[in-house]
Amino acid sequence: MSETVADILIDRLVDWGVRTIFGLPGDGINGIFEALRIRSKDIQFIQVRHEEAAAFAACSYAKFSGHLGVCLATSGPGGIHLLNGLYDAKMDGQPVLAITGHTFHDLIGTHFQQDVDLDKVYVDVAAYNERIMGPAHVHNAVDEAIKTAMARRTVAHLTIPKDIQDWTMNGGGKRSKMNIAHHSGDVYADALPLPPKLLLQKAADIVNAGSKIAILAGRGCLTARDEVLQLVEKVGGVIIKPYLGKAVVPDDSPYTTGGIGLLGTAPSEEAMEECDTLIIIGSSFPYEEFYPKPGQAKGVQIDLDPSRIGLRYPVEVGLVGQSWDVLRALLPLIQQKKDRRFLESAQAGMKKWNQLMEERATRMDMPMKPQVVAHQLNEFLSDDAIVCCDTGTITTWAARHIKIKGNMMFSGSGNLATMANGLPYSVGAAVAHPGRQVVCFIGDGGFSMLMAEMATLAKYNLPVKVIVIKNNLLGQIKWEQLVMEGNPQYGVQLHPIDFAEIAKACGAPGYTVEDPKKVRDVLREAFAQPGPALVEAVVDPAEPPMPGKIKMKQALHMAEALARGQKDRWDIIKTVIEDKVREVV
Ligand SMILES: Cc1ncc(C[n+]2csc(CCOP(=O)(O)OP(=O)(O)O)c2C)c(N)n1
Ligand SMILES: [Mg+2]
Fold first, then answer.
1. Which atom of ligand 1 approaches the CA of 394 most closely?
2. Residue from 52, 86, 263, 391 whose mutation best tests the ligand 1 pocket (most atoms within 8 A of CB)
3. How far is the CA of 95 from the centre of ligand 1 (A)?
4. Where are the domains of the chain?
5. Residue 293: exposed, middle, or buried by beta-carbon count in 10 A (0-12, 13-18, 19+)?
6. CA neighbor of 91 nearest in space, from 18, 23, 157, 152
7. What is the 511 CA–ligand 2 centroid distance (Å)?
8. Is the CB–ligand 1 distance for residue 473 below 6 Å?
9. CA nearest 302: which of 283, 328, 277, 329?
10. CA angle 317, 318, 324 (to 5 degrees)
11. Cα dihedral 406/408/414/420 (nearest 10)
12. For a pocket test of ligand 1, which of 474, 499, 543 has the largest count of ligand atoms closer than 8 A to its C-beta?
């Protein structure tokens, strides 16, 4: 029997080492499902409940495994559902291949059902974006799609009309004369460029001349921990970790001031304000107000992508290449500095900051503070845990209170900052790393968007522990309305859902905890479960995610919003005053 287009597609994916596809079936991809069924020993299909989750899971699979993530969706609505997860992959630089169906090839453009030209829809999101035209087109198009996704660390898309999926070479699929069978290869070669010696020396001269050195270590450093630590040790500087770089070095490293940005720490902000040299490595952290003022510090930037050099800060030297590779070449040129004053002052700042965080996270009053849950979680995290975080105030609690140790991995939706990524990320992480502890830290808003994925965890018995921070609120937006805009909250209240019952209905144990004194016991019980489990932690909706350093304008906006009729203003005032008092005492 001659192979169909779909068979050739799946065979070629297997040749490329693809072993997992996340998706959901539909009549527009039934041909591909038959090919998947036939090769189910070589490639596993993970069925999710919403295609958006498939794209998030594929992105997470790529983030946590370093391999291509693949997702599959049907024509029309299925392909449209993938989009948000695909943008997440594109914006966080992850290689993901999306495969979609289309309607019958000879009904395209005739108002037929699900006649959506997904290749047109995907023009912006996919760097490689093609419609497969027949069996002789599959090999070379798959090869190009995968190489583009890997080389550019982005999204590629192939769409295949439903009937073409069943075409065979014998059954009408002609090969054009110019297209020689098997002419393209399934080999990917990574770029490992090294900057010339002169440029490395120029960068070293800048670093050697500096005395207050801040290193902004982003996601591009996740595979360069040793090299970043060697650099910081030599220069006596500090490592500042943007959100996606949280796992670059452990949080108890004496060299790190933790996160940066609204969810960061005061010592990171101070280091940026005071440094005379900024070394940006593998980061495009977007918030320019947190960088040194242009002209304040000399800059060196290391990035794999030349077009990112000078993106956020006018650096003097750009070094293009893999961060670990470039750092290994740079390190011998860096002089050992004796002056540790900048580092020591940051360390003194961190001591105070950590005390403050500890204070905020050990309050035993009711309603429970969300920080308490993040803080207590640390006790149950293994040295190689993978933490998948969603977007909201919970991002601040996770960034500040979940401590990276050992070989832990951590990620969330960085540049897209979308809600709902957390739970499907945990599906992707658990599939990529069977046997490793995976934890999902998520708000009630983000969880309820894709909560049917609890059933995916149960179906495949993925032992993910899901911690839902329940404030019955789109909390982040409440605080933005108050603090950034000076407006009373509007449209952010959520109708309460019993998430423990949702988990149980999906086939996983669910727990609820409201009392901070009981959090440890409840977490212990949930973490003792062999499969997935969910803990719903009911927390204080009046707890604000304070920036590391509060600006006068933010305080004024908040006061203005409270005066303009914010209903729970007395709860907020009480919480803020308590936080302040604790800071002062
Ligand atoms: C898909 C999407 N919709 C809306 C937003 C805007 N947004 C950012 S955070 C947030 C609230 C998140 O609420 P929740 O998950 O409950 O977490 P909380 O802030 O309450 O901790 C919203 C609506 C977004 N980032 N992504
Ligand atoms: Mg919430």
1. 21
2. 391
3. 25
4. 5-171, 197-348, 362-584
5. exposed
6. 152
7. 17
8. yes
9. 283
10. 120
11. -150
12. 474
Name the strands in the sheet holding 69-73, side by side, starting at the edge strand that comes first in the sequence.
44-47, 20-23, 69-73, 96-102, 155-161, 126-131
- Percent of the chain predicted with pLDDT > 90: 90
Residue linked to tokens 């452990």: 250
**pTM for this prediction:** 0.96
The DSSP bridge partners found for residue 215 are 239, 279
Which residues are within 8 A (CB) of 7 and not within 5 positions of it... i.e. 6 or more apart? 35, 38, 39
Check if 60 has its Cβ closer than 6 Å to any atom of ligand 1: no
* CA dihedral over 361, 362, 365, 366, signed as positive or negative: positive
Residue 298's beta-bridge partner residues? 277
Strand partners, 129: 157
Mean pLDDT across 552-573: 78
- Rounded mean pLDDT of 239-268? 97
| CATH tag, 362-584 | 3.40.50.970
CATH for the stretch 197-348? 3.40.50.1220
CA distances (Å), origin 294, targets 78, 291, 316, 346, 437: 46, 8, 11, 22, 42
- The answer to whether 482 and 557 have CB atoms below 8 angstroms apart is yes
CATH: 3.40.605.10, 3.30.70.270, 3.40.50.261, 3.40.50.970. Which one for 5-171?
3.40.50.970
Q: Is 215 helix (H, G, I), strand (E, B) or coil?
A: strand
Supply 131's token pair.
């419609």
CA–CA separation, 556 vs 570, rounded Å?
Answer: 16
Identical fold for domains 197-348 and 362-584, yes or no, is: yes
Is 318 in a helix, a strand, or coil? strand
Least confident range of 82-91, 180-189, 250-259: 180-189
